[in-house]
From TrEMBL:
One of its GO terms (cellular component) is cytosol. Pfam families: DHDPS (PF00701). Homotetramer; dimer of dimers. The keyword Amino-acid biosynthesis applies. Keywords: Amino-acid biosynthesis, Cytoplasm, Diaminopimelate biosynthesis, Lyase, Lysine biosynthesis, Schiff base. SMART domains: DHDPS. Pyruvate binds at residues 48, 207. CDD domains: DHDPS. It comes from Aureitalea marina. The gene is dapA. One of its GO terms (molecular function) is 4-hydroxy-tetrahydrodipicolinate synthase activity. It catalyses: L-aspartate 4-semialdehyde + pyruvate = (2S,4S)-4-hydroxy-2,3,4,5-tetrahydrodipicolinate + H2O + H(+). This is 4-hydroxy-tetrahydrodipicolinate synthase. The active site is at 136 (proton donor/acceptor), 165 (schiff-base intermediate with substrate). Catalyzes the condensation of (S)-aspartate-beta-semialdehyde [(S)-ASA] and pyruvate to 4-hydroxy-tetrahydrodipicolinate (HTPA).
Length: 292
């Protein structure tokens, strides 16, 4: 299981039609686009997928569509997290264990739990399922940072907690995680800009946003980094670096959807309270792709 989740995972967007509905055709096209690009696995209904604005029926549609289009080609990771521990546990009971190789569970947002609260939340979640779990630390969104000692405590107490998507944007914290993690525990970058740095320091890969815009190049960069081919990997990183800044300039997933619309994969539509990238950013993203 752990080996299946090394390399580049992609946090898929949810394409929308102009009328606001989920665009199933574009979603299938997106799945094909990233698989053809050589990524290692797919992440469904994460933050980038605007999952908080989807109805339960739409979430089921997204899951069915991706599972069907994937046809068992790549491992699938399902986002199941939230600020209500009991609700997260309830949702996990309905997960098809045959369809998904792991669950990505974000730390509670807004509640701002203590480290003990974070530990108790994930301990309860892990105890409720046999599914492998990737923790997700993203304090820029949750307003609560999961510290390395809390991660290590959880990993030691629950064998099905197999790794963490670390998106604090803090290289020192990332290195503390990589250095102190139990053998076989995955430390995965959640920040595209510092992915290569984390990989070269011993991280196991990334769950990426730009990886669905530039899947071939970004996944190759990660593979090179995992093999220790730093010079070639670094050249790819610097070639793509501007695009990473561009897609996050006005928030995620507005930027990556703008890029995907230029690539003809899906529209740039997002759901309120998010808004599309403005015309100037949309143009600059297109100019980058033309030059790239």
């Amino acid at each position: 299981m752990v080996n299946e989740l090394k390399g580049t995972g992609v946090a898929l967007v949810t394409p929308f039609r102009k009328d606001g509905g989920v665009d199933e055709v574009a979603l299938r096209k997106l799945v094909g686009h990233v698989i053809d690009g050589g990524v290692e696995y797919l992440v469904i209904l994460g933050t980038t997928g605007e999952s908080v604005t989807l109805t339960q029926e739409e979430k089921q549609l997204v899951k069915r569509t991706i599972v069907d289009q994937n046809r068992g080609r790549l491992p699938l990771v399902l986002g199941v997290g939230g600020s209500n521990t009991a609700q997260v546990i309830s949702e996990l009971q309905d997960v098809d264990r045959k369809a998904y190789q792991a669950v990505l569970s974000v730390s509670p947002a807004y509640n701002k739990p203590t480290q003990e609260g974070i530990y108790q939340h994930f301990s309860s979640v892990a105890s409720s399922t046999e599914l492998p779990i990737l923790l997700y630390n993203v304090p820029g969104r949750t307003a609560s940072n999961m510290l390395p000692e809390t991660v290590f405590r959880l990993a030691g107490d629950h064998s099905n907690i197999i790794g963490i998507k670390e998106a604090a944007g803090d290289l020192q914290q990332a290195m503390e995680l990589i250095h102190g993690a139990p053998n076989g525990f995955l430390v995965i970058s959640g920040e595209d800009m510092i992915t290569l740095a984390m990989v070269l320091m011993g991280g196991e890969g990334v769950i990426s946003v730009i990886g669905q815009g530039l899947p071939a190049e970004f996944s190759e960069m990660v593979r090179l980094g995992l093999r220790g081919e730093a010079a070639h990997a670094r050249a790819l990183h610097y070639r793509m670096m501007k695009s990473i800044s561009l897609i996050f300039e006005q928030g995620n997933p507005a930027g990556i959807k703008s890029m995907l619309s230029h690539l003809g994969v899906c529209s740039s539509e997002v759901r309120l309270p998010l808004v599309k990238a403005d015309p100037d950013l949309h143009k600059r993203i297109g100019s980058f792709l033309d030059e790239f």
